[in-house]
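User: Last request for today: this protein with 3-methyl-2-oxobutanoic acid, please.
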Amino acid sequence: MSAIIKDAKRITTHTIQEMKQAGVPISMLTSYDYSMARILDAAGIDVILVGDSASNVMAGHETTLPITLDQMIYHASSVVRAAKRCLVVVDMPFGSYQGNSSEALRSAIRIMKESGAHAVKLEGGAEIRESITRILSAGVPVMGHLGLTPQSIYKFGTYTVRAKEEAEAAQLLSDAKLLEQLGCFALVLEKIPSKLAQQVAKEISIPVIGIGAGPHVDGQVLVMHDMLGITNEFKPRFLRKYADLYTVISEAATQYISDVKTKEFPSEKEAY
Ligand code: KIV
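Assistant: Here's the final one, the structure of the complex with 3-methyl-2-oxobutanoic acid:
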């Protein structure tokens, strides 16, 4: 284990920037609740993202658009109570920062004050520069997010790979440089060609964390429910499943139901 990580009592935005400089890969997973965040933190995850993917995997919505600021704060405060060591970053939900930088600042301050999280993440580039600048000026660290930005799904129309064409790739590179220049401490790149992600990671000094962006970046992020195999119908090429919890949970539930119905459970030993 690298000395940077071993010596870190608490992972901060500075720690992950040092990790990039030292070539130590950054691990990030999503989490939305206390119990799961406790397991990830104890396992040694560097960053927990309280993603607005909670809208999909926790609430069952088709997109990330419906989740509210209050709901994100509820999820984030549950995660913060569990996170003893890792950095906690919270997605600013759709509608809380796009149109108006004063509202963006108010939303970011609510997240930081009410949840105790350490940083916020916003989707977009030049079009949200005022919001990013305003939030940063209040001392709130900002993580950027470019490429496939799920809050704009109705603009894109699909969840396919972004920035395959030259013009979109050039725009993404220019946005990445802008986010670095504005003062973002890190950047998520979602579902873009590996070569482009590699170029961005090389050309900017802040850590680049990829999801479906290939191996040549500074860290990786996955949605926890996907990598644990809970969302068993979701199978994009970039996803590696580290467990099949859908089957584990389903089998446990089936066994429990059977034990209750046959009066196998509880036994005398399990009674008072
Ligand atoms: O909301 C989320 O889970 C995310 C990750 C996909 C990066 O933004």
